[in-house]
Amino acid sequence: MNNQDAVNTNRTIQITADGSHTIAVPDLNITYHSKYGAIQESRHVFIQTVFKYFLNLDKIETVHILEIGFGTGLSALLSLNEALQLQQKIYYETIEPFPITMDEVSVLNYVERISQNLHDEFLLMHSCAFNKDVIVNYSFSFKKINNELQNFQSTGKFHLIYFDAFDPNTQPELWTKAIFEKLHKLLYNNGMLVTYCSKSIVRKALLAAGFSVEKLKGPPHKREIIRAVKKD
Ligand SMILES: C[S@@+](CC[C@H](N)C(=O)[O-])C[C@H]1O[C@@H](n2cnc3c(N)ncnc32)[C@H](O)[C@@H]1O
Fold it and tell me: Using an 8 Å Cβ cutoff, are 161 and 66 in contact?
């Protein structure tokens, strides 16, 4: 069975240490998030390390975010929740070649743990058509792209990239200089890419693609994560 078949046909929902769900793909021995806490990890990596950090440096009317791997929608939901609290507008574009089913979405416990008020918004992000702009609410515009990152083309520019592909052992084709060069071009100057993986091959590929790379403290049980900045 190849990776694509495994991700599409053999997924299970599991509880992580902070009580929030993740999805596991047993055939590939991977999970969508840290087993030590899915919400805890996503808040640390995406919300604290780039979203809030970036907004503290720069006031921007609408922050443009690109996520690689929509998956469970957890990072989108956390970003929407933060947007409402900070009264910050977001345009959120996300790539997902292997969407999860609405049956799986209905089991996930993110809304009850993040904000009960966002139940309809969470379902809308999962159920809406691909490749169409959707107004999720007054703070949050959204578009899902049903494509692989390797084939993704965009004329848009972004302030932040949440790089949340499966790890380099599972998907070595996504952690390359060529892919990071493509993402570098999609960022505004001073824009940032963040990823949970700080392996040396990843740092080297990001540096070769022209990023400035910082290693930062990871969430519990993860020593380091990477924030990479585009400096022209
Ligand atoms: C580590 S999971 C993270 C998902 C998501 N950010 C979340 O919080 O649930 C990786 C995601 O990347 C998606 N993916 C797999 N191959 C991809 C590709 N070639 N391009 C973009 N995304 C891909 C997977 O289907 C999966 O949803």
Answer: yes
At 40, list the tokens. Answer: 């805890």
Q: Which residues line ligand 1 (CB under 6 A)?
A: 7, 32, 42, 68-72, 74-75, 95-98, 148-150, 164-166, 174
Q: What are phi and psi of 146, to 5 degrees?
A: -90, 80
Q: List, in sequence order, every residue forming a beta bridge with 90; answer none if it has no partner.
A: 63, 140
Q: Along the 232 residues of the chain, how does pLDDT read in single tens digits?
A: 566 776 776 899 999 999 999 999 998 999 999 999 999 999 999 999 999 999 999 889 999 999 999 999 999 999 999 999 999 999 999 999 999 999 999 999 999 999 999 999 999 999 999 999 999 999 999 999 999 999 999 989 999 999 999 999 999 999 999 999 999 999 999 999 999 999 999 999 999 999 999 999 999 888 899 999 998 7
Residue nearest to atom 17 of ligand 1 (CA): 148
Query: Please, what are the domains in the chain?
Result: 37-230 (3.40.50.150)
